[in-house]
Write a sequence for this structure.
């Protein structure tokens, strides 16, 4: 009923599965010496199922992580959609005039600005790659955690006991492992809900991601390969409830108006999903023998679609840091894990602060701030070097980037 591993990861979501696969791929740990624990392993979807409502906008850095793991190659082409352009504009401006900002992949020498990927397909490909890499998948929940200077011990709900040199919390916003470790969180509610659906539009999306900032929150239309767009409409909670209660024709009219008619009339082709938005960050990322990844460590506003991308940067950074361990027994050494915490906590807090500030800036109805928004967007649009830097940061190619992501990457991080 007991077994030892070098690393045990709580959470079989994308972040957990990618982390396990990358650690084996880069030879930080050997196949069979790393396990994923999750009581809610996803069931496979039928091949002809419609697109899942959950989609991710993946950056170039995220694409590189997934390629290194062999996950990208396992994604069905029909479940990914490259986008070459992006248009962001204020509610008081026009998408083709003042108060707008446009990005084009050709301007920065890139084939595209990223990909829209179906969440369910990415989850399935990530778990398949983990199994192929020799990661042990255990279908159970974590019931108890013990951390000492020498090792970590997990007791599962089915009675099994796992020993490890390092345990990793990749179990999401309401992380059980984070709670068991006694790590708190800070943040606040945005008092907004995100409405998600797939819509068909009167005009083609032209391979462009469209985003309009409204006083109640941003509205994004992300291009899908079948000509539809994925809607992510963040709005005040009361407004979300009102919109969710409309019939299909009334919702289509409200959406068309809120999007400024940029794609003409938009109509729902799926049911409408809804979830609350909040800012949340863990007060600590590490403890002796423990590290937090992804949503277990940080949750930000979805207005820039960076949530999963930040989590995958966590994964690449942790792999690089752990590669410096002298041996398996050193994987959970606090001095080593502190380097990961310093690196990623500062980067993630900067991103969270920027998203928080943008949300507040565009939600304000102050005449002064409206003028500043219009002037700022117009100025950045005219300053090619600044716009290029914004685009490179969104692609994950600028800043303190892990070694694996500075090019095609290396097969091993071990010296």
């Amino acid at each position: 009923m007991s077994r030892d591993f070098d690393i045990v990861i709580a959470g079989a979501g994308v972040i957990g599965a990618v982390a396990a696969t990358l650690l084996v791929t880069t030879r930080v740990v050997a196949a069979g010496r790393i396990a994923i624990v999750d009581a809610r392993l996803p069931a496979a979807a039928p091949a002809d199922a419609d697109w899942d409502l959950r989609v991710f906008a993946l950056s170039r850095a995220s694409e590189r992580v997934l390629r290194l793991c062999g996950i990208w190659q396992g994604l069905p082409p029909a479940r990914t959609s490259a986008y070459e352009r992006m248009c962001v504009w204020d509610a008081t401006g026009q998408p083709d005039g003042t108060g707008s900002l446009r990005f084009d992949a050709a301007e920065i020498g890139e084939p595209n600005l990223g990909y829209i990927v179906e969440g369910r397909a990415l989850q399935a490909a990530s778990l398949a790659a983990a199994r192929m890499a020799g990661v042990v998948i255990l279908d159970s929940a974590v019931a108890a955690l013990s951390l000492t200077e020498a090792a970590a011990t997990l007791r599962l709900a089915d009675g099994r006991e796992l020993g490890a040199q390092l345990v990793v919390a990749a179990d999401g916003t309401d992380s059980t492992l984070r709670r068991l470790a006694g790590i708190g969180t800070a943040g606040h509610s945005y008092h907004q809900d995100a409405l998600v659906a797939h819509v068909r539009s009167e005009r083609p999306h032209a391979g462009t991601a469209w985003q309009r900032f409204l006083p109640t929150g941003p509205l994004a239309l992300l291009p899908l390969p079948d000509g539809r767009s994925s809607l992510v409409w963040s709005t005040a909670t009361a407004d979300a409830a009102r919109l969710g209660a409309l019939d299909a024709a009334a919702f289509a009219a409200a959406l068309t108006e809120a999007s400024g008619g940029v794609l003409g009339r938009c109509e729902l082709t799926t049911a409408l999903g809804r979830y609350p938005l909040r800012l949340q960050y863990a007060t600590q990322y590490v403890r002796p023998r423990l590290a937090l990844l992804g949503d277990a460590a940080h949750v930000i506003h979805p207005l820039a679609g960076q949530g999963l991308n930040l989590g995958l940067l966590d994964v690449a950074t942790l792999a690089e840091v752990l590669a410096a361990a002298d041996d398996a027994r050193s994987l959970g050494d606090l001095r080593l894990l502190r380097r990961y915490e310093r690196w990623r906590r500062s980067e993630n807090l900067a991103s969270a602060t920027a998203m928080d500030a943008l949300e507040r800036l565009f939600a304000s109805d102050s005449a002064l701030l409206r003028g500043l928004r219009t002037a700022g967007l117009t100025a950045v649009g005219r300053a090619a070097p600044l716009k290029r830097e914004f685009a490179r940061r969104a692609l994950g190619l600028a800043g303190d980037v892990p070694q694996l992501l500075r090019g095609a990457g290396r097969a091993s991080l071990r010296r």
